[in-house]
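Hi everyone,

Forwarding the result from last night's run.
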Amino acid sequence: MLQNPPAEPGMREEDIDTPALVIDLDAFEHNLDTMAALLAPTGAKLRAHAKTHKSSVIAKLQMARGAVGQCVQKVAEAEALAWGGIPDILVSNQVVSPRKLARLAALARIAEVAVCVDDAAQIALIEAAAEAAGVRLPVLVEINVGMARGGVEHGPPAVALAERIAASRHLRFGGLQAYHGSAQHKRAPEERAAAIGEAVARSRRTVEQLRQRGLACPIVGGAGTGTFRHEAASGVYTEIQAGSYCFMDADYAANEDAPPFRQSLFVLSQVMSTAGPGIAVLDCGHKGVSVDSGMPQVWQRPGLRYAGASDEHGKLVIEDGSAPALGEKLRLVPGHCDPTVDRYDWYVGVRKGRVECLWPVSARGGMA
């Protein structure tokens, strides 16, 4: 069921219905501008990851500041963005379902749409879908740069897949996908630097071996909010796939030398009970905020700790005697912004205490 809009423009923040997904627009715009300024002197371009925001509105705001396109993880997300007018989309993932590949090929009539592979069998499936649709699809080879999730081994195995793509009449070799996701939340900066140093070395060797085989490598893509400065400065990566930078969350804030962005995404929640001694209960539990990366934090209320979640309730422990009032509304900082966003149909954009806009989360639930 589509959720009712929890607010309307002009409304005071304290009158927003809860739980609601709130964007502090000043902090959000600061983050977009900061990323654009940091990447400008490096030559690397932003291909922002829409698995974070799931919104063609936000994608357009990023592209207005120089992003070359968007990444997604699922075909359904690509569809939502393409239908929303985004012209350049990379599915930074493997797709093997013929039905999904047919949908992806159909999108190529209205947008540039690329996809990743790490196996020759995937190439054959994409080739069949492209031929049936009468389109030519760009395909990137994903290499394992240390994450050990998807990705063919760098060097000769990756080159062999690139040659297979380049030989097809229905495909085009688009470059390398070289994302090291597990490096993003390594707490110590030297650990992140070491992990990305190895990713850069593997990518550089593969690009050189492609060159030796006569294959240009238009894209080397990867990086995230926790490491993007290393990839951007490498001279190897051409596209930066950071996503969470526009919102931030408690997990990224826990990194030493945390990324230079402001917290802009919140879940607004209301105190629904103060009956228990030393505790208060919010109307936001598992269904309103993700806890996979830890409990949310209560924004600018250091005496309150979000101690536990059930389906519809969040338990606050009052640690310094400053109890919230019944009916009071509090901002929560999610531990992990991406899955939290996927719980909502609407963003409520707030500036200086007033609702300025509502934006649909157009790719919400795009799992297929």
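The CA atoms of residues 48 and 241 lie 5 Å apart.

Cheers,
N.
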